[in-house]
Amino acid sequence: MDMTQTADAPPPSPPQPSAKPETEVRERPALRAGDRLFLGLSGGSGILLLVLMAAIAGFLSYRAVNAISQDHGNFFTTFEWNTDTTPPVFGIAVLAFGTIVSSIIAMAVAVPVSIGIALFITHYAHRRIASPLAYVVDLLAAVPSIVYGLWGALFLVPHMNGLDLWLDRYFGWTYVFDQSTPGSAARSLFTVSILLAIMIVPIITNVSREVFRQVPRAHQEAALALGATRWEVVRLSVLPFARSGIISASMLGLGRALGETMAVATVLSSSSVLSLHLLDPEGGTFAQNIASHFGEATNFGRDALIAGGLVLFVITLIVNGAARLIIARRKEYSGANA
Amino acid sequence: MSHTASDLTAPQARPQGRLAQRRLPRWTPLAIAVGAVLAGAGIGAGAGLGSHVQWGLIALILFVAANYTLTRAVEGRRQAKDRVATSLVYACFVLAIVPLYSLIETTVAKGVKVLNGTFLSHSMSGVLGTQPGGGIYHAIIGTLEQVGIATVIAVPIGVFTAVYLVEYGKGALAKAITFFVDVMTGIPSIVAGLFVLSFWILILGFGFSGFAGSLALTILMMPIVVRSTEEMLRLVPNELREASYALGVPKWRTIVSIVVPTSIGGIITGVVLAIARIAGETAPVLLLVFGSQVINNDPFNGPQSSLPFYIYEQYNLGNTASYDRAWGAALVLIILVMILNLIARGIARRQAPKTSGR
Questions:
Q1: Do B86 and A230 touch (CB under 8 A)?
Q2: Model pTM?
Q3: Transmembrane ranges (chain B) (predicted)?
């Protein structure tokens, strides 16, 4: 930097050469041009990404504020989504409820199952079964969400009827599993949750598997040497070591479930009713709301959808940020063990 | 946790004069399993339960219970717990494999019915939604062009950012980039679509086009490329860089001719996986490309279609013929994604010896 300044601007040059020792041979201007270009290109790309993130937040907020300022309902507590009426009345209460409830149920189902599969692959299955299995799970993580959506709507929904009826009959007293009209199509938040769980199982499994694989052999062998059974090895040495890894894997899955659009849009029969009866075809999620309403939305309606998207963006930012902080903490932890 | 520790140290009640505690014969779980399945089927048939899933569940519960009781009686409580845990792990595996297998099986079985030369080489132009026939040619063109443009934009930016993070980055800027790249990985695709909608279409006033979709796909692709490339660059041993510097090679030449070539296999793998990931994205296309029934070869003008969008569109038409087409397109999309994944793995395997570590 200083060397080029000496070439371009004579006035400040006299003090500089004296400040730099003459023996410094590494500074070669001819080569540093390439270096500067490269630093500029790579640093510029990085800064571009930061600018992009800021732009996403900025532009979404800009359009969202425009929409929310004309909203004649409370944006956070209104149930319905009527952007075309005058005055427009819309709010995210139902969407926030649907998004959060479906994601939480999906997590509750997917996390234990994923940990089980990951343990099966790393600690239980024979090597000859384990590696192709890991491979298959990898491939399943890559299946596009629209395919899950298609399968969910045309295959899973009819097959959920039996389970719904059973839950209604034996667990209807919990209110949550009570079906208002028994036998209605299973296009409900509950089915969505199950489908989301199926979708995120491969993702959580993949990450957990990597973490389980990193558990030091010494820890496990120490437990075995004390006479621990296989389950005790898992509980005493594998799970404690992998705990933060499992948490961050789950957070990744949660982020995916929160933002999932197509699978929800195809399965859910949406409405602006906030229903605690999870088996009823009611409710909605942020992403599904955008996909379903976008087609016939006016310009103002699009702004309102952007406002909904902004809330989803903020939620996923928080979830992902938290996941990253947990991973960062783990890095220090495993660094001490390395 | 504390009681387990005491379990470990507590001497097992074992018969005098024998080193090993009493064990059940190795065929016990198999025998219990067969018994449980028979009993489950018997109870199921006896109670007149129609669903075979219920038979299976009864058998599973019987198996776990019998296994626990028997093991506990013969081998002790810790062994019994171990057996239950093993059963649960296997159950998790079966529980997850069933839907995932069903997904693949259904898609293949239903997709194969419509998959033929006509389906691949014709658009939906002039085909009513309720008629059989038509095809996905326009959607394939759309997917290839949109994904192609996104790749061309995202890969250089992603690779350069990774180079910055590994080779140059120190301090607050690099930390900020790392954090936000991580966060960006989790942006829902529909939010990326909304951003491009608000910026490119609503504010700058461009129309719906394949290119607008590519911009959203770029946003989704860049962080994936950065992450995978960064990991690969970090695997390059420092000795290689130092050897290069010692020969007087400047830093940028070292990066171009030493660091990147060493890790090129991994970088390409990451890029191909990223392509596979964005090729299946529907939401941005839905918001930005708008969909089309006819072939539009120009990604910069006018609405296009794409494979995922086509599936959604045909599903929404809601009749037998359109469902068939949706399954056909889903099968093509899965095959495309799988091929990309296999290519990526092939490259990763061929290039693996070059990298140290894993």
A1: yes
A2: 0.86
A3: 27-47, 53-71, 83-104, 147-166, 178-202, 208-226, 255-279, 326-348
